[in-house]
Structures are given as C-alpha cells and as structure tokens.
Amino acid sequence: MISQELINELKIIIREDYGVELQPAVVSDIAYTLVGFFESLAKVAYETGIIIPTPENPITDLKQKLRGGDEA
Description:
Helix content is 62%, strand content 0%. It has helices at residues 4-18, 24-47, 62-67. The protein has one domain (4-67).
C-alpha cells in the first residue's frame, strides 16, 4: 500500500508541474501505476544483470521500499 503522505506529495507535484488539480482517487491510480512501472524496470534490470544485489544494495524488499512503507 502506498502511504497517503506519498499520494498527497504526488498530487502537489502534479499540480505544481502541470497545473492540474486531480481527484485523490486519480492520483492514487497514477501512484500505483508508477510503482508497478518501476517494479517492472527493477525486475528487468535484475534479470539482465544490470543490477546485482549485494549486502549493501539488496533488492529483496523492493516493493516495500518503492511503496515507502513497512508492509510488503
């Protein structure tokens, strides 16, 4: 789950950068789409060897880090 704080932050970015005020449900949909996109990019990078996990850079909890929370 993406935190409400991050959704609010995205809403502000969209308003400031694009001059558009969106409904919270639309911003939430955009946020989840972005997270899914970056999860896919990370998976491709990992599977192709572009990103190699190390103890200093583990990617086992990628979803948790991308979503900014403690829940997976």
